[in-house]
């Protein structure tokens, strides 16, 4: 979500995600060897912004705060996370997360877990943040790339009139799951859905 969302929303949602999520623990012994590190999107592969170029940050170990409003690490603490954040000179921002699971089955479950959190994100926001007067989620469908991907949208409006729109996707290639998020101030009609679908397809194809 865009960084304008208040900290109270992020705090409430982190607690709510624990109740909504499924515990997915990686096996401690006899695990498959680690795969090669997955590749990340470049700035030029994000949905074009009409007034500002995208800037890509470094690939970083850990979990990005930019996904904290809809996706978090509760129940999946055994995994190593890597991410890259992207920014424009205005209000748009984006982030890509990658996680390599020990087996394709664990990766499939993890992808479903993240998609479930995104699917229920708007309901959790509206329920847990008194400053949000309206929250709505939309399903933009699945994409036929590798083991599949799905794109969703989340819109929020606060009591002081701030409106934010985010597009989020979860995709999988074998044992690797990637989550991509794009957000800015605005409404559903200002979201570049088709361009974001192309970005998601590229993200999954580019992993290996």
Textual characterization of the structure:
The chain has four helices and eight strands, in the order H-E-E-E-E-H-H-E-E-E-E-H. The chain has helices at 7-20, 104-119, 121-128, 193-206; strands at 55-56, 60-61, 81-87, 93-100, 132-143, 149-158, 163-173, 176-185. Strands 1, 2, 3, 4, 5, 6, 7 and 8 form an eight-stranded antiparallel sheet that branches. A hairpin with a 2-residue loop joins strand 7 and strand 8.
Kindly state the percentage of residues in helix: 25-40%
| Strand residue content | 25-35%
Shape label: globular
The largest pleated sheet is described as:
8 strands, antiparallel
If you compute it from the alpha carbons, what radius of gyration comes out, rounded to the nearest whole angstrom?
16 Å
User: What's the total helix number?
Assistant: 4
Q: From the helix content, strand content and strand pairing, which structural class follows?
A: alpha+beta
Mean pLDDT across the residues is 86
N-to-C series of helices and strands: HEEEEHHEEEEH
Tell me the number of strands: 8
Q: Tell me the distance between the termini.
A: 27 Å
Parts with pLDDT < 50 across at least 5 consecutive residues = 1-23, 26-30
Summary keywords:
208 residues; alpha+beta; eight-stranded antiparallel β-sheet; 4 helices; disordered N terminus
């Amino acid at each position: 979500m865009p960084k304008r969302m208040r900290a109270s929303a992020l705090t409430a949602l982190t607690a709510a995600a624990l109740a909504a999520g499924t515990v997915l623990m990686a096996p401690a012994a006899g695990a498959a060897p680690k795969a090669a590190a997955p590749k990340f999107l470049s700035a030029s592969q994000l949905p074009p912004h009409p007034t500002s170029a995208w800037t890509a940050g470094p690939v970083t170990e850990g979990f990005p705060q930019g996904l904290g409003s809809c996706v978090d690490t509760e129940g999946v603490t055994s995994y190593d996370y890597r991410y890259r954040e992207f920014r424009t000179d205005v209000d748009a921002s984006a982030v890509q997360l990658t996680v390599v699971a020990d087996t394709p089955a664990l990766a499939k479950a993890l992808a479903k877990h993240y998609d479930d959190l995104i699917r229920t994100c708007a309901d959790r926001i509206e329920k847990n943040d008194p400053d949000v007067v309206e929250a709505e989620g939309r399903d933009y469908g699945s994409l036929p790339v590798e083991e599949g991907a799905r794109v969703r949208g989340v819109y929020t409006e606060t009591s002081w009139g701030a409106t934010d729109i985010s597009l989020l996707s979860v995709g999988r290639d074998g044992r690797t799951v990637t989550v991509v998020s794009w957000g800015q101030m605005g409404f559903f009609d200002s979201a570049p859905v088709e361009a974001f679908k192309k970005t998601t397809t590229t993200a999954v194809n580019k992993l290996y």
